[in-house]
Structure formats: structure tokens, C-alpha cells
Amino acid sequence: MFEFLKINADLGVIFMCAVGVILSVLLVIGIKRVKIFDPRMNEISSFIKGGAMAYLYRQYKVLAVFLVLMFFLIGFLPDLGFGVAAAFLFGAILSCCAGYMGMRTAVISNVRTAESAKKGLSSAFKIAFSGGAVMGILVVSIGAFGVALVSYIMRLIDPNADPNLVNQLLTGFSLGASSVALFCRVGGGIYTKAADVGADLVGKVEAGIPEDDPKNPAVIADNVGDNVGDVAGMGADLFESYVGCIIAALLLAADSFNIVNSYHILLLVAGGLLASFVGIVITRLLKTKNASLSLNIGTYVSSALLVGVSYLVFSKNIYLFLCVLCGIVAGVLIGKLTEIYTSAKYKTVKKIAASGETGSATNILSGYAAGMKSTALPIIVIAAVIVISYSLGIVSGSAFGDQAQQCGHIGVVLAALGMLATVGMIVSVDAYGPIADNAGGIAQMSNLDKSVREITDNLDSVGNTTAAIGKGFSIGSAALTSLALIVSYTHAAKLDTIDIFSANVLGGLLIGGMLSYLFSALTINSVSKAANHMIAEVRRQFKEKKGIMAGTEKPDYDKCVDISTKAAIREMILPGIIAIVAPIVVGIIPGLGKEALAGLLIGATVTGVLQAISMSNSGGAWDNAKKYVEEGHHGGKNSEAHKASVIGDTVGDPLKDTAGPSLNILIKLMSIVAVVFAPLFLK
Amino acid sequence: MFEFLKINADLGVIFMCAVGVILSVLLVIGIKRVKIFDPRMNEISSFIKGGAMAYLYRQYKVLAVFLVLMFFLIGFLPDLGFGVAAAFLFGAILSCCAGYMGMRTAVISNVRTAESAKKGLSSAFKIAFSGGAVMGILVVSIGAFGVALVSYIMRLIDPNADPNLVNQLLTGFSLGASSVALFCRVGGGIYTKAADVGADLVGKVEAGIPEDDPKNPAVIADNVGDNVGDVAGMGADLFESYVGCIIAALLLAADSFNIVNSYHILLLVAGGLLASFVGIVITRLLKTKNASLSLNIGTYVSSALLVGVSYLVFSKNIYLFLCVLCGIVAGVLIGKLTEIYTSAKYKTVKKIAASGETGSATNILSGYAAGMKSTALPIIVIAAVIVISYSLGIVSGSAFGDQAQQCGHIGVVLAALGMLATVGMIVSVDAYGPIADNAGGIAQMSNLDKSVREITDNLDSVGNTTAAIGKGFSIGSAALTSLALIVSYTHAAKLDTIDIFSANVLGGLLIGGMLSYLFSALTINSVSKAANHMIAEVRRQFKEKKGIMAGTEKPDYDKCVDISTKAAIREMILPGIIAIVAPIVVGIIPGLGKEALAGLLIGATVTGVLQAISMSNSGGAWDNAKKYVEEGHHGGKNSEAHKASVIGDTVGDPLKDTAGPSLNILIKLMSIVAVVFAPLFLK
């Protein structure tokens, strides 16, 4: 049995992916069984669905141009060729598929969650979680399927194919996934925050209407944004991490190791899929009245299962099992730390809320400082994972005569894989939040009973915490994935050691770090620009259509959706080009070259991770500080502290939902670009 | 002649230092010639002087405890010993002397600047600049004197002394200077911003009285803060950079180079002193009506002179001259770039001011993004200096058979020295600003004629621009100095190559980067805490002493001075301890060790420089955006845009005057700690 699996590990992965697809079809059937008879709910739902799908189509149209250009660029480069180009396209298309199907499910789930909330919390939770789970399952199933298929096809065509060729195809596949992820994350982040800020500033603050009021012209754009940014963007992000990490592991394993082979990696992936699916099914079947508890049970079950599976896979080399364990534990720890810094249950958020009493400036300063301070422990966890798993890797290999440093690197990549193997469960939990949020919006706009809104609010607030944890998790995994890819790059670029003290490495480090600052500045500015357009449009509608506030005239939702869509598409291009072009330029320029590029990647990763943690946690903490004040602390709504907290929340929005998450992709994408184009720098 | 100088280069430096001391005595005599007869002015001046001196005494008392502890710690460590401990103490005491004398001069100059302003701009400018110049001259003269004296004494005692011993003494000296600098910068930064924020929030915003109104109980603390933070703190900062850079150059030169010897370094230092002095004298003698122009002429003259001197010093190896030239040009460029990002003449500040029209949140976001974006070009300049001067160093050494990498490093350190050699001029220009600012405060509080205030305002606004340029300069020079010291560390720790891909180096990079975030968070929080105390105290006085606002009762200035003093002293301790302890702990811990420490230093430098540029420029831009609005743009004073810009300015204050500048010291101090304690990590 094990021998069969060993040879056909890729088939095992493909089998688990098929299970995943069946599972997601079953979940969709379950969701669709809920029928909506309320015409108002159907109308609102179709607006959101229409807006979301319209955005995706336009995004894919722009992406198509980019993909075709890249296809020919890669194809005509003598060192890469059309095989790699095809793999690139395959990765990009699969990523789009996962995003498309996941979001389609999300937009049919939200209205059904609102409908089920009429029956109670448990029913509503089941639908919302099912919707998120489809995204989670598809992300991992499609991702793993693509990798396994590339590997299987190569094995069929020529079992003795040059491993370098297989590696090139795999990295091409990964580059495709990464490119799509960047555009989805940046575009989605700009879309959602432009709509959010626009809707809040004019609607809530100026016109004094509540959140999700159908009188607000930007309300549909805001709800569409939740799907576009938090479901599709986040899914693409973790799709990329997952695929990138598996491929980095396969590349390292292929470099002639005695201790790890590609089938170890693939078996671990298959086991991770199984663990995620079991966790999802258990969460779905549990009859609980506490959404948070159900999600936690599911997450812990899948982590525990993964521990078991990885023990089986590495039973002959316990040190490698310990590497995987390191990654699993670190993932849980980083999630927990993120919660401590961003949840109103703990003192950081309470302090920020209190500081609002002396005005906006002190509120901003304390949130800003809290974000920077919150980097300390997660960074120590990440550094510890790297140092410990590296040492374990060396110990594990010492008996087999493998080169020490390479064994150390395989240890780190296994830890990354341990963190990411149950990503199916993580995405499910993460995508559940925006569905619940949207359900609340639909309930509000359709004038459903107050009890319905209470249930969706309850689900939503659980979703806020899980979203923060998910963000911490995606940053941690991005850091490890990026490092794994950088190691692959050094192999591809034939670099033995990168001396930190040669000038070009130092220059690269500085430029890499700077890129993550520049990138953040660009994305934040894009949100500001788009939000300003949105603000102007909403004000115009309120001014020109007097009937809106009286309730006799319908606002022009489409116009607002259109503004967000156009802004997102336009503004995602420059950051995307920088991410792809900068590493190639630095790698080619004389005087910098491939060593400088290694420095650039490390500099971007170190600074990017710090920036991402800091911005995500500042934003999360401001958000929850506002909610804490709104619960009645420090004077409650409309107090000085509340006004300050609203400003803090608005400042934090693009930090936590646009710039921070986009940095995750930036560092991974630049690394994979370096791997793919490495042959160019060898000359 | 040249042969004599070659052997007695240290005596040449000591001679130039003596010239500097005479020059500063002459300047002080010139300042004291202005007599003050107005009793009100004398009273206010004595308050400020008293507060500033009281703060210094208390700071030195705490420092004394720390210095004695460190003295015995270093003395009893078998690898270091009491020789190094004595050098450490010597460096610390000299740094204190420079700070003490410079600040003493500053506090007698400010009232005399106000007095001279009665006679016109030119007279006032002469006094303000003389006050700043004393600080500038003392910083470089005392710093260079200490280094040259250590070197000369060792030559007298034993001409064939072990070069390692000399190096150890020099680094001990540098550690003393750095430790004092950290406490002065952090303490001064907290002092000045706590007073500033407290005075502004309650005085200007709540009580509605103008800036520098004697009714405000925090007004004296605010004026004291300008001296404590912007004069003493900044002076200590550049004293450290200057000393650290010279010593790093001497260490590298001592490591058996054929191309550079210690006399080259010392001659360059002496030439730099000369260039600074000439620039200062010319600026002082010029009869001009444009303060900005005079300062620029002085700066350019000293830079041009330095170009000439360094050409003479390195006439036999033109490549090394080009390295120095690189540094000089980069210093000017970084200063200019800083001006572009922070002056209201350029579009960045105008955009930030405009964004205030849609509220505080958009104002904060655009300033925050502008700071991050402003890292791009200065980082490219720094990276280019490193890459180019490294290559030039290698070329220069190739004919002499020196080891390539070491020659590259000497190239980088010469560029750093080029940037720093005219630091005497830079500090003079920088310290002039707060003197003019204080003069304005005294004029306001003494009810002098409006024309006097107009002249001091004019001088002050020029000072704001020069302060921003000075900040850019100190960051750039801190980056290069820190790198030079890290290179010295690798020699001291006998590290040949630091492979970026060994796990402990990676872990070190992450932890180092994190430290600069943590450090910023701590200092910002300290300011917030201290400002809250100040706010409470000012409110209490207004409430309990009803006569203050009526003008019948005097506010209790001492109480506010006391709050700032205590807070600054208390809050400077934790960041100081982190900076000194963290590198030692990482160097000693098993599993991390000396390689990890190298990673830590690089990580802290890369991230620290980015953070420092970003925070300083954000803060400077917000400050000038506020002034721009106050000039009447976007609705002028009391408009929505103005309120938003005041919040932006308050947020930016601790970023640009506390956290940002403190990072400069953090990175240099950690590097010098690593050099001094390197023998501990060898076991």
C-alpha cells in the first residue's frame, strides 16, 4: 500500500482533489436548497451578484491581456520556452477558476444565510460556513490538482525527464498563480476600501443614515467589495501561498536529497487535504449555538489530524516530522497572537479606545504604535521556526550524508508546508466572515426582522476575529513561503553563498526593503484616490436626486459599482508591474546582478513581513476599538472618543485590507519571478 | 611637510581642534557682547536656561549611574578590561561636555537673538547662527580631539603597541559617545514632544490662546524642549555618527591595507574640520538679508573645500578620492530630496494640505503614504553610494594586491567619512533653527514689537527647512556609519562571510528589523504617556488658578518643566537597555551567536533607515502642510482643512522628533556594542 502510494503519490493528491470537488458540489446543493421568496431580498442579492460578477469579468479581461503578453514573453525567451509559458497560463487559469467559483458560491450564500437566519443561528451558521467552505475546498483542491497534474503528465510523457525541466514547468505554474493573486488582492483591496470609505464618510457621517441603508448609493458597491476583496482576494492570496510552498518543497526535494523525496511532499499535501476536509465536514455537521466554538473545533481537529498524517509520512525520520510540527504550532501561535493584539477582549484595543478621549491624534498614535509593537512576538515565532526547523533539518540529514545547508532548508520548507497544509480549513473560516457580513447587509436593506440582523451581527463579529487571525496566518505563511522560494532561486541561479557584506547584496537589501514601502504607499494612495471619486459621486447623487433621502427615488447603485470597478482595475496595474519588473531589472543590471537580487528578495521579505503585521494589526485594532466605543465605553456613540475612533478606523481600513495583504503577495511574487527568470541572470 | 603630517596626523587633528575651541570662544564673546536690559526678557530667558540646565543635570545624574555600571562591567570582563572601560568613560564624558557647552551657548543666544532682532534681520541672524555654530564646532572639535588623543597617547606609550589594543580602546571610546547619544536623543525627544503636544492641545486648542503665550503653564517647558531635544539631542546624535565613522575608518585602515593608512583618515578629518570652520566663518561674516542664502553659501563653501582637501589627501589614488566625493555628493542629494518631500514649495506637502479638506483620516493617510513613498529616492542614493564606492575601493586596491572585499569596504567607509567630514557646518545650521524658534518665543512672551517677531519668524521658517535637511543628512550618515561599524564587527568577530541563507542569519535579520519597530513603538508610547500627564497638569492649573487667564496670576511653569523632565528621564531607560542588551544576548545565545548578530545589525539598519526616513518625512510634511493651510490655503485657519492639518501635525511630532531620530542612534549603538563585545562571542 505504502509502496503504491510512494510511486503514485501524485495520483493520491489528484484523488483527494476529486473528493474535494465532490464535497463542494454537495455543499453547493445544500446551500441552494434554501429558497428565497422575498422579492426585495432577491433584488438586492442580484445587485450584489451582478456587481461582483461584472467586476470579475472586467478584471479577467485586463488579466487576459497581461497573461497573453507574459505567455509570449516567456515563450520566446530561449531559456524558458513555450512549455513554461503553457504551465504559467495553466496556473493563472486555475487560480481564476478557483476565485470565480468561490465567489459565485459566496454571492449565492449570503442571501440564503439571511433567509436561514429567520430559523435561528444554527441554520444561518451552516449556510454561511458552507459558502466559505466551498471557497476553502476549491482553493486547495484546484491548487494541489494543478501541481500534481503537471508532475503526473511529465511522468507519463517521459519518466526520465530532466528534473530541471519539470522544475521549470512547476515554477511557471506557480508564477501564473502568483500573478493572478497579485492583481486580485490589490484590485480587490482597492475596490472594497474605496467603496467602504466612500459609503461611510458621506452616508454615515454626512447624511447620518445607518450602515447598509439602501438610500446610500454606495451601499451595493460596499457589499460587492466584501466579496471581491475579502473572498476572491484572500482566496487568491492563499492559493498562491499554498501552490508556491508545495512547489518550493518539490524543487528542494528534487535537488538530490536522501532524506526527502517528492512523494513525501505529495503525501503530506494529500494528508493535509484530508485533514482540512474532515475539519470542514465536522464544523458543518456540528449542531452548536456558538459559532466561534464550532469554528475552533473544526480548526483544531484538522490541525490534530495533520499532526497524525505527518507522523505517518515521516515515521522513519522523526526530525522531519518535528519540522512539520513546528510549522503547525507556529501557525496556531501567530493566529492567537494576532487575536491578542486586535480583539477588544485584550488591553491593546482597550487602550486605543481610551486614548480617543484626548482626540484623534492620540488615537492614531496609539494605534500606530500598537501595530509596530505587535510585530515583536510573531517575528520571534517566525525566527524561532526558521532556526529550529533548520537545525532539525540538519540533524535529520546528518546520518545520510546530505549537504547540511540543503537539509536545513528542507527543514524550513517542511515547516512552511506544515503551516499551510490545512489552509483549506483556514480559507473556509476566513471566507465565512464576509458572507455573514453581506447577509447582515441584505437583512438590513430588505427590512427583515430585527432578530435576523442580530443573528447575522453575531456571526459577523465572530467573522471579524477569524478574519484577523486569518490575516496573521497569511502573513506568517507568506514569510516562510517566500523564504522557501528564495532558496529555490539560489539553486536556480547557482548561488552558493550570498555574502551579506558584498556591496551589491547590501544595495539589494536596501532596495528590496524600500520596494515594500513604495508598494504600500502606492496602494494606500490608490485607495484614497478611488475613495475621493466615490465621495464626490455619492454627494452628487444626494444633491441632484432629492428623492433619495425621502425614499421616493432610487439611488444609482451601478454608477458607484462602476467607479470602484474602474478604479480597482486601473490602480492595480502599476503595483503589479513594479512587482514583476523590479526583480528582473535588478537581476540583469550590471553591477547589481543575481546576488543583488537575492538581497532584494530577502530585504523585501523582512521589511514586507514587518510592515504587513504592523499595518494589519493597527487596522484591526482601530476597527475593534471603534466597535468597543460603540458598545458604550468612553462615552459611546457620538462622543469625542467615538469620533476619534471612527477616524482611526478609516485610517486603518486601507492599511489592513489593501496595503498589508498586498505585501504578502508582493514578497511571494517577486521571489517566484526571480526563480522563473533565473536562467536570464546566469549569463 | 607632507612627511611630517603623515607621521603626526593625529597632532594635526588636535591642532585643528584647538583652532575650533578658540573659534568658539570668539563666537561666545561676540554673543555675550549683546546686553539685555529688558527685565521681562531676562526673566523668561532665565526660566528657559534654568529648565534646560536642570534637565541636563538630572539626565547626567542618571547617566552617571549607568556609566559607572558599564565601566565596571567592561572593566571586569577579561576580554575587555579597564583600559577599554576608561576609554568608554572618556568618550561618554566628552560627549556630555560637547552637549553641555553647546546647550549653554544656545540658551544664552536665544534671548540675544531676540534683542538683536530689534536692530534687524542681519544682526539677529548673526547671533542665532553664532549660537548654533558653537555647538557645531564643539561637536566636531571635541569628537575629533578625543579620537586623536587616544591614538596619540598610545603612540607615545608604545609605538609598537598591538593594533588590536588600540582598536579596542577606540571602540570603547565610541561606545561611550554612543551610549550618551542614545539617552540624550531619546530623553530629549520625549521631553520636547511631551511639552509641545501638551502646550498645543490644551493651550491652543482648548483655551484658545496663541503659541508661546506666557499664560500657558507648559510654555517654558516647550521652549526648554527645543533646546534639550533639537540642540543637545541632535548634537549628541551627530557627535556619535562623526566619532563612530572616524573610528570605523581607523579600524578598517589598521587591518593591514596597502592603500589606506590611518594618517589618510586623520588628514581627511583635519581637512574636514578646516572646511567646516571656513564655512562657518564665511556664513558669520556675510552681510546678507536672506538667511537661507547665507546658510547655503556656507554649506557649499565647506563642501567645495572638502572636495579640494580630499583630492590632496588621496592624490596618489584617485579612486579613493572618488569614494569621498561620492559621499559628499550623496549628502547634498539626500538633503535636497528631503526638502522636496517636506517643503511646502513642492507638490507632496500641497497634496497633503488639500487632502485635509475631506477630513483628518484622508490627511493622515496621505501624509503616511507620502512618508513611505519618500524612502524610494534616498534609498536608491544610499544603495548607489554603497555599490559605487565599494567598486571604486576594489579598483583602487587591485594594483596593490589587497584583498578585494576589504578594499571595497574601505571605499564605503571613505564615502561615509566624506558625508560626515563637514558635519561641523551641518550641526551649526541645524542648531541655529531652535535658537531662532526660542527667540521668537521670548519675543512673544516679552511683548516685544511685532516687527521683532516677524524677523524671528522669518529666521525660524528657514530653520524648519534646514532642520528637515539635517534630519535627512543624519539618517543617511547613520546608515553608512552603521554599515562601516558592522564591517568592523565582522573583523572583530572573525567572520569571513555571512551567508544570508543560514538560518541564524535569517533569524537575526528578522529580529533586527523587528527591534527597530519595537523601539519606535516604545518611544512613541512614551511621548503619549508623558503628553497625557502634561495635558492633565495644564488643565488642572487652568481650572484651579482662575487668575491665569485673567492675567492676575502666574502659572506654575516649574511643575510642567518637572513633568517633562521626569518623564524623559524615566522613559529613556527601557529603550536604552534594549539597544545595549539585545545585541549582547543574541550574540551569546546558543543557536544564534555571532552570525545571527551580524544579521540582526543588518536587519536593524535596513529597516531602521527606512522607518527613520519615512517617519521624519511624514512628520515634516504634515508640519509644513499645517503651516501652508495657515497661510490661507484651503480655507486657512479654523477651516476643516486646518483642523485636519493640526491633527496631522500632532501625529507627526513624535514621529519626526522622537522615534525617527532615535532610530539613527539605535542602529549605530547596536553596531558599536557588537564591535566592543565581539571578544565575548568568539568562544
The overall strand count of chain A is: 0
Q: Uncertain runs of chain A with pLDDT below 50, 5 residues or more? A: none
Number of structural domains of chain A: 1
| Main sheet: strands, sense, barrel of chain A | none
Greatest interface by residues involved: A-B, 81 and 81 residues
- Termini Cα gap of chain A: 47 Å
Q: Please provide the ordered H/E string of secondary-structure elements of chain A.
A: HHHHHHHHHHHHHHHHHHHHHH
Q: Estimate the helix proportion of chain A, in percent.
A: over 70%
Shape estimate of chain A: globular
* Helix run count of chain A: 22
Q: What Rg of chain A do the Cα atoms give?
A: 24 Å
Oligomer kind: homodimer
Overall structural class of chain A, as computed from helix and strand content, comes to mainly alpha
Average pLDDT level of chain A? 89
Give the topology, please.
The structure is a homodimer of 683-residue chains.
Chain A: H1 2-7, H2 9-32, H3 39-76, H4 82-117, H5 121-157, H6 163-207, H7 219-254, H8 262-285, H9 291-313, H10 318-342, H11 347-355, H12 360-373, H13 376-398, H14 404-420, H15 423-445, H16 450-492, H17 503-544, H18 547-550, H19 557-571, H20 573-588, H21 593-630, H22 640-681
